[in-house]
Amino acid sequence: METQPEKYDVIIIGGGPIGIACGLAAKKSGLNYLILEKGCLTNSLYNYPLNMTFFSTSEKLEIGGIPFVSNSAKPNRAEALEYYRRVVFSNELPIHLFEEAKKVASFDEGYKVTTNKKSYLSTHLIIATGFYDIPVMMDVVGEELPKVTHYYKDPHFYAGQKVLVIGANNSAADAALETWRKGAEVTLVIRGPELGRIKYWTKPDLENRINEGSIKALFNSTVKEIREKEVAILTPEGAKIIENDFVIAMTGYQPNFPFLKSIGINLSDDEKLYPAYDKETMETNLKNVYLAGVVCGGMDTHIWFIENSREHADRIIEKIKGVPV
């Protein structure tokens, strides 16, 4: 005989910083809740480049009023991982790691959440799934080759190799500079006429490397085809073929739109795919289903960050409880 699924007041889907913030707010309000995370704790942060430094200061990355002390004003990836781990364990937050929510369906007055391991019932749902798990593809021939990655981790891997970095923003800048410093021959391909949003302490460094010719930059250019030992690029001067060992495509990431649609959350009918939600309560077009964090921005993944979306947690729990957190 099948056992009745566990019942919660709130299930939080996503165990990143904002999902954890929602858990802290739920605990403070005395709610019975559970956090589900498809990967490791703060899975997205774990997959950031090893040497990454945040734009924000540590106090802007704090959640639940818990101090974040770092060695410098702007913390790095390792410090952030340690901070959020300590927050979760010291507060004994109930979080199931490596358990992915696969399906959500209406059930009585709430919802049934089915994961890769079991099912749960909940009156309220909070979707805090971020956007870092699904890269924006270029849709070019050869993108599926093993030499192509949409995630950059460690520059040592590319030492002595011919590397093509695609993108104009911070991730591309870091990949280009770090791999070049490890001895890679780097070409940077940028769709527009100039560099994009890059950390103020990184941008001059990259500009100097480009100006001196250490890193070759192709502006107003796009990749046409990726081959085993070369890449075809469309430039204002015509097509160019360059020798290549690896491609690091920093083309951005997107929320899991199929999952949102499968739940029944409405998306805008333009290319931005903004999910429907009330900006005051964070409640979607579905009763008792809420969005929190960067998932709220649709394809505009630059709108929401930890520092300006951590307040979503209190808004949601206040709506659920009907009283300020």
From TrEMBL:
Organism annotation: Solitalea canadensis (strain ATCC 29591 / DSM 3403 / JCM 21819 / LMG 8368 / NBRC 15130 / NCIMB 12057 / USAM 9D)
Domain of life: Bacteria
Matching InterPro entries: Bdr, FAD/NAD-bd_sf, Ferredoxin-NADP_redctase_2
Keyword Protein biosynthesis found: no
PROSITE patterns in UniProt: PROKAR_LIPOPROTEIN
Gene Ontology molecular-function annotations: oxidoreductase activity
NCBIfam families: Bthiol_YpdA
Keyword terms of this UniProt record: Flavoprotein, Oxidoreductase
The UniProt record lists the keyword Oxidoreductase: yes
UniProt lineage: Bacteria, Pseudomonadati, Bacteroidota, Sphingobacteriia, Sphingobacteriales
Xref: Pfam families: Pyr_redox_3
Name recorded for this polypeptide: Putative bacillithiol system thiol disulfide oxidoreductase, YpdA family
PANTHER family associated with the record: THIOREDOXIN REDUCTASE 1-RELATED-RELATED
Coiled coil residues, start to end: none
